[in-house]
Amino acid sequence: MSSTKKLTTIAILSAMAMILNLLIQFPIVPAVSFLSYDPKDIIIVIAGFIYGPMTSFIMSLLCSFLEIVFRGGNLLDVLMNVISTCTFACVAACIYKYKHSKKGAIAGLVLGTVCCTLSMTLWNYIITPIYYQMPRSAVVGMLLPGIVPFNIIKCTLNAACAMLIYKPLVNALRNTQFVPQSNTNETLTKDVGIVSAFIIVSIVVLILVMKG
Known about the structure:
Layout: H1 3-23, E1 26-27, E2 36-37, H2 40-51, H3 53-71, H4 75-98, H5 102-132, H6 136-175, H7 190-210
Antiparallel strand pairs: 1-2
Helix pairs in contact: 1-2, 1-3, 2-3, 2-4, 2-6, 3-4, 4-5, 5-6, 6-7
């Protein structure tokens, strides 16, 4: 595959991630309403599955800087966005790179969810008091009722959506010859799609319940 075609594909996927970011953003856990969900990580982790973890890292940097251009913010926003996306998408893509199978994809997404939740718990403890000028004790009080469940829900939803749309998105890119045909069997099959859809519906119901 030519480097030009690869760069074009990454640019298309980055544009898709940014469009999702700009169109969809909302709080999901009332205890931490300043934390908003957006679905850009779905596309970023799929790009990592296609091209490797470095692609996810580059896209996370690009999207984070573009987000402050369009939405406003500062370098702390970039830092937190990059850490959040990379600990989820890069970890998942790294596992999938070395275990290129359905089990590898699932294991990568689960480990990415765990790593992102742990890292964002730590980094919110460090950065949030600086960013919002609040006492650190107030942030400690938000960890278990707010910050931890927010990241678990966000990453689980993104993981399920990635599993659900990976195959149709990659097939569309292959049909337009942006991505080469695979010589291996498809790793994300119908049973995974059914489970992913069930997880997505369950999380949506959970969010609606939390919002009353």
